[in-house]
Amino acid sequence: MDKDNDHGKNDGEQRLESGEGDTMRAEGRFIEPQEPRAEPGQSEEQAGTGDHATPERLDHPIIEEPHEKPEKRTTTELLYGVIANPVETLRYVAKHKLVAAGILIYVAVAWIGAFASIPGSLNSFEQIPEISGLPMFSPRSIIVFTIVGTPFFSLLWLVVYAGILHLIASLLKGKGEFPGLVSAVGFASFPMIISTPFSLLDYVMGIGISLYGLISLPFTIWTIVLTIIGVRENYNFSTARAVWTFFIPLIALFLLAILLVIGIIALFVGALSR
Questions:
Q1: Is 66 domain-assigned?
Q2: Per-residue confidence at 3, pLDDT binned at 50, 70, 90?
Q3: Is 44 or 217 the better-scoring residue by pLDDT?
Q4: Three-state helix/strand/coil letters over the chain
Q5: Residue 220's domain spans which residues?
Q6: Mean pLDDT for the chain?
């Protein structure tokens, strides 16, 4: 029987090669090879390939849905976020490099604070006749300087200050960029605007400047903490490195001031010993 089967197979192959296969196909006597059937627990693609199906082998490859773009936030939302959720907000600000908004906020805070301090400054100058008589300390000069000078010098200080922080952060192997730092520092200064009304107490209620400094101290500390957070998020730092980045310039400035005082004292003592 096995010989008959082998003989039948050989005969079929010869007919297929000799062209009789087309005739058999036309007459419906030729059996097309069937697709392999899937075993239980096996997909049709796996049965056809003999292996696990991959996206390249699928007739209908899986198409990943595009990720939704993060929603843009308004400046008002970001300012609220600085108060309510500072870490995530300053990370967003530094990542998207909102330089224009950061500069505008920093200059506006400095400008409003300078305007609020005008009455107290005029009151202080009036108590010193030697100063109040000078044209540069007249009310008009002070107001003009506040309007024109404050935006310029606050912007200059922001660039210099951020540049120093960026240099220190780079030395500590930070990965952030300067525009992101400027943006974060600008937004971090926002809480100082809350302390602005207290500067009017010196003029309205006669409160001393030392008391105003005490009242504004929590807002200053708040701004420092926000600045450190901004440095950390911009440079992907640890908190310790961000703290060092903030305080190293202050420590260097303090040591420089001490050396300057020591030098002046040495010159004064040397002049007296002659």
A1: no
A2: very low
A3: 217
A4: CHHHHHHHHHHHHHHHHCCHHHHHHHCCCCCCCCCCCCCCCCCHHHHHHCCCCCCCCCCCCCCCCCCCCCCCCCHHHHHHHHHHCHHHHHHHHHHHCCHHHHHHHHHHHHHHHHHHCHHHHHHHHHCCHHHHCCHHHCHHHHHHHHHHHHHHHHHHHHHHHHHHHHHHHHHCCCCCCHHHHHHHHHHHCHHHHHHHHHHHHHHHCCCCHHHHHHHHHHHHHHHHHHHHHHHHHHHCCCHHHHHHHHHHHHHHHHHHHHHHHHHHHHHHHHHHCC
A5: 75-247
A6: 78
Q: 223 Cβ partners below 8 Å, 6+ apart? A: 188, 189, 191, 192
Burial class (CB in 10 A: 0-12, 13-18, 19+), 215: middle
Q: Choose between 232 and 148: higher pLDDT.
A: 232
Number of compact structural domains in the chain:
1
CB–CB of 179/256 below 8 Å? no
Question: Does 65 map to a domain?
Answer: no
Mean pLDDT of 105-125: 84
Query: What mean pLDDT comes out for the span 18-35?
Result: 48
**208 within some domain:** yes
Domain-located, residue 223: yes
For residues 142 and 226, the answer to whether their CB atoms sit within 8 Å is no
